[in-house]
Amino acid sequence: MEDFGFLRNDFYSYFYIVMDIHSLTFKNIYQVFSLFFFHLVFFPYRVFADSSISVQITNPLGSVDTLPKLIQQILKVAIQIGFPVLVLAIVYSGFLFIKAQGNSTELEKARNAFTWTVVGGAILLGALAIAELLNTTVQQIGAGA
Questions:
Q1: Is 110 exposed, middle or buried, given 0-12, 13-18 or 19+ CB atoms closer than 10 A?
Q2: How far apart are CA 95 and CA 117, in angstroms?
Q3: 76 with 120, same domain?
């Protein structure tokens, strides 16, 4: 039998019993891997780490250190992604108007698509303003308390 080092004897003996080539099933594979991950999670003493190495974790968001700044950054990204999608949706609704060719049900679908595109655009435009308004209000309430 091979020595797997970090594995306990009961694990790799179980591994050889379960992984018999003639009884290889998904259930057996699942049992082996679940037991393996159980040992990794619940027996952390098996990790051999060098304590002399220091690790410094930097903030991947840069200067974002408060919740309002995080919301503002998320909304800026949403606006950067949302405007091209908005333009494509307006073009698509225009295509639906052209495709309708006077058919009343198709015209109704095109109007509905255009209406909801405009509503989505208004929400997109107003999101950053609403977040800024809420941020200013919360700061004023915090300053007044």
A1: buried
A2: 13
A3: yes
